[in-house]
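Go through this chain for my students:
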Amino acid sequence: MKTRVTVGLVGFGTVGTGVAKVLLRNAEVIARRVGIPVDLVRIVDLDVTTDRGMPLPDGLLTSDLNSVLNDPSIDMIIELIGGYDAAKRLILDAMAKGKHVVTANKALLAVHGEDVFEAASRAGVDLGFEASVGGGIPIIRSLTEGLAANNLSSIVGIMNGTSNYILTRMTQEKQEFREALAQAQAAGYAEADPTFDVEGVDSAHKLAILVNLAYGTPVNFKEVYTEGITTLTPLDINYALEFGMTVKLLGIAKFRDGEVEVRVHPTMIPQTSTLARVDGVYNAIHLVGDVVGDIVLYGQGAGSLPTASAVVSDVIAIARNLNKKAPGRVPPTSFQPDRRIPLRIRPIDELTSRYYLRFMVPDRPGVLSQISGVLGSHEISIASVLQRERQKDQTVPVVIMTHRASERSIQTALRDINRMASIISEPTTLVRVEDEEI
């Protein structure tokens, strides 16, 4: 019978420091929840000299990775080094040696998840990755256990705090994108290179993981249609407000007729919706189940301690399994490995939606009729038009909100319109509109 569970932590950066603090500071309550002590016995990092602002017992911190991998007494490894190659090798090596693994590495799981899931199954070890999506929000365990009785029709969420902070500044303070990004960087909410955040890549990584768990199908993040927020302007956000809408960067998955839509892009949603009121660096994920109905999970999507909370929740779950001799009780992908079914991921051009379109045109008669004529020829119906007072000899915005139309028709029509050099001064801005199940 086990008398304790031993843990090795690899990666002692911001999140790793938070995890160490939680495991050491809350050791007593963790032991009471698990039934036996959960002991952090080694921390591995290349940097063993920088002060992390917390005292460590002598001998706990080392730069020797093999001291964790090759120690048979260590039951579990927490991987917090990030990236792809080194992290993947670490995780696969640990599993091959019979060690259970906890990771926060969303990028690795979104790209190489199948390799990792198969390795865990082959080795008979547990894999926890609650911190890979939503920071401190317990979305992974909600999908694998709490909502396991449901068929989920949709998952829609704000999954990146940096982009949400930027859009909040653009909405509330009327800031340009670059100004809001600089403020996010100054506040520590955005990296020096914010590409993954503002181009939607981070959200696509997370959505790929959620779709895998929700629908029991392998999904690679490359199958997720992805757009970022870099081309949005305060002008578009102000027009959205006039339509009673708010712009958010959303990850959207919908199950329809045995197929799944999986997409990330700026989206206009009604101001009355729950997600429209999620501001700053917070995340929120809205799920619709056939049994439970609507569920919204809300909280801090990043940060040392919120993420550490999720990491340690996985440590506790695995430690409970070890204490009761029940590893593998919950498959890492929620579905039993032989019951996962590949589903078709619908390409974006099969989407049907409402659309916001902004055209920059010369202020002269007949322009709107030319644009509407092209839209009509592609069976795109106009719901409403906003056009500012005339400004002679100037370029002015013409804004159109469509009824539901197909993405293929919209893109074809816009190609035709954007070739009309006599009236179009810059590429048309398109934002998709979601007002169902939000």
Observations:
- The mean pLDDT is 95.
- The first strand starts at residue 5 and ends at 10.
